[in-house]
Structure formats: structure tokens, C-alpha cells
Amino acid sequence: MQKIKVDKEPSNDNQNQRLQALLLLEAELRRQPTQMALSLWAVNEVRAVVDYSQCFLLRMNRVGKARVTAVSSLANVDRNAPFVRWIEQQVSKVSKERAKSDGDAQAQIIEISLAGNTSKHNNEVYPFQQTVFLPFYDRSGRMFGGLLMARSKAWQEAEQVIAVRLAETVSHAFQALTSQKRLRVWSMPKWLGLGVAGLVALAMFIPVPMTTLAPAEIIADEPVIVVAPIDGVVARIFPDANVAVKRGDLLFEFDNTELKAGADIARRTELVSQARLATARQAAFSDPQVYRQLAIAKAEVELARAEKIFSENKLARTIVRAQKSGQLIYTDRKDWIGKPVRTGERVMEIADVKRVVLRIDLPVAEAINLRNGADVRLFLDANPLKALSAKLRHASYFAVEQPGVGLVYRVVADLEVGGERKIVPRIGLRGTAQIFGEQVFLGFYLFRKPISSVRQYFGF
């Protein structure tokens, strides 16, 4: 232990002024509203009556370890600083030694040496080696903190008396600002920490359902797909998008300029071939050579008639009508007018608004083992607070490329709209689907992705 050097009091020190300043400080101390304000005030304002170079305020936790909570001239404390850790270690050591000893349990000044602390890089020694530690005691006599004052010159007896009085006042102020049980800085006991760790370890074996999240959309169940019957350019779309249509209503029309001309030419060709056949029949009675050409003339008439029928049928297919009643769904009229399409290309669909299903685009990275009939919950973007229930119908075997998402599995689920639920979600609504899979341990559920990443990285 370090011996505190004490000089004789100089004859000319002004004790009356110090006592007056002490009374003013005590009055100001009582006006501090919080423990933080009191801590900063104690390490900075006490310098008015006690001459020190640096002051530290420490608080003890419930296991007796000291923590620096305030340092003079600093707004915040870096508890990772080597010197701060050194001070905490020294004060904690002294506190534990005094707790085990049977001596004076409430010493007003405790000797603490900081001479053992040097920089690891340049061997610099802490310059303020004259230190005093003024402990704080609670009502039961247990130490819950203290002030560590350091300077380079020896301490005088009168200064120690004033410092002790101020420390007692600060200690009383801390006790007034907090309850007896919370005077020490809270720290989890070792047994409690082990117990919590054990409970967490046991909780990792709780069985929970494996779940995954994926974007989803309400789509029609088995809609009638309206495709282009011929190659051509869309000239006109009659009904607007997302309106109800009836069977036989006009949907869209192709540009028929060339087809009209082709049908007219086919009709004229048929008339010409019929005229040639009539002429050949009249001449066949008198000219055997013409009679031999009669079969060719008949074949030409049949060919012309077939071309006419084909042209007229193709012209008739330029107008597309609804094959059933329902809701007409397509993107936008401007997207299709003037657009060339191929035979069989999808243009529209007619859906029954009361028959809807849930389509889920499950990313490959989020895929889990899926089974038919698994529970699914849908959180619509339009109503995220109310989940819709569904049952998984099937999932695609192969992943497909989805723009903006990547490879996804197409999953279809049937919405449960029976019972109390009368309103069927509108086609086109989007949201997030939660798919429930098999039962797994909570630990695997939480660390599935890290485990997968580690296995992919190390290859086992």
C-alpha cells in the first residue's frame, strides 16, 4: 500500500474561506436533480475547495466490482481505456480486501496506489501519484462507490478533512436520489447468468414449426385464357380492363385490311373458275379434247371454293368474342393496340371473381420442405393487421426465373373463405405469405441460415 505523504499546514492558508466555499458547495450539491448530474458535479466542482489534478467517481456493482462512471473534465467515460480499467481493477481489489477483513469497515480514507500502471508503448508513469480514495457507504455500512482524487503534491491534513466531509455529503446525496437496493450499479450475479444461459440452452430444443416468408398475389382459379386466334395486329379493344363481360361480348379486333382483300380475291377466283367450268361443259359436247379438260375445271372450282372458305373463316376470326361470363383481366388497352401478336399468344383472361387462389413466389434461398395441405397465412399490403388463412395446394418441382426476384418455386394455396368470411379478396391484391413447414427445434429454426452458410463455405 502507498503511504500518503502529509505536509504540515502552512500558517497562511485561509481556512475560513475554504469553510465558506464548502458550505456553498454543499448547498449546490443538494440541488442536483439526477445521479448523472450529481456524478459530473462531484468530479468537477469539488476542485473549488480541494486542490486535485484529476478526480474519478466510481460505483460498485452487486458483486463488488468498481466501475468508473465520471471523470473530471470529461463528458463521457471510455471504460475500454487501459487506465480506466486499471483504476477499476485497483479499487475493486481494495474493496474486496476490506470486505473480507475484520478491521475498520468504514474507513474515511483508503490508500490506493496507481504507481504500477505504465504505458505499454513508452513506459510513461501516471504523473499524479499522490492519491486518496474517499469511499461511499450505505446505511448498512457496505461500500457502494467513492471518489478517487489524484495530484502530484502531498496531501495536507486540512485538505483531507474537507475532502472527507465532501465525500460524505456526496454519499448522502446519492442515497437520497435512489433507493437502498439500487445504490450499487446493477450487475447480473454469476449464478443468475448461468441459470439464464441454461434456460436459453433448453429453450433451443423447443419444437416449433419451420416457417418462411415469400411475396404472394391473389389470382383467379382456372380462368379462361383468351389467346390470339391468328397472326395479326390488334386494332381495337372494346371493353375496358377489369370489367364484367358476358358470353358473346366483343373483346378485341385485329386489323383486317389484308384479310378482306384476300377474301374478296378468293370469291372472285371462285366465280372465274365456275365460269370456266360452265364453258367447258358446253364445249365438251362438240369437242372431245375439251371434254378431257372438264375434270381439271371441276378441280379448279373446288380449290377456289376451299380458298374462299378459308379466307372468310380467317376474316371472321379477326373479331374475338367472350367464351364465358366473368371478369375481363388484361394489362392496359394502350399496351395492345398496334401490337403484332402470334397465334396462341395470351392477350386476356376471363375469371370468376368468386374463385380465387393464392400464388406464392418462394425464392430458392428461402425454400423449406413443403407438403400439400400445409397451413399458410397471408398478410395483404392493403390490410397487414388481418391475416388470411390458406391451405397449400401444390408447389412446382422446378424453379423458374422471376424478374426482380430470381429463381423461385411457384406455390399455389387455396384461401379459406368459408364460414364467417364472406368477402373474397380482389384479384390482383399483393402481400406476404407465411408458409408453415415441418416441426423443428427452435435452435435450428433460429440458426438455419448461418448453418447453411457455414456448410456451403466449408463444404461439409
From TrEMBL:
Keyword DNA-binding part of the UniProt annotation: no
TM annotation in the entry: 191-210
Keywords: Coiled coil, Membrane, Transmembrane, Transmembrane helix
GO cellular component: cell envelope
Subcellular location: Cell envelope
Main location: other
Cited InterPro entries: UPF0194_transport
Matches recorded under PANTHER family: BLL5650 PROTEIN (PTHR32347:SF23), EFFLUX SYSTEM COMPONENT YKNX-RELATED (PTHR32347)
Protein name: Membrane fusion protein biotin-lipoyl like domain-containing protein
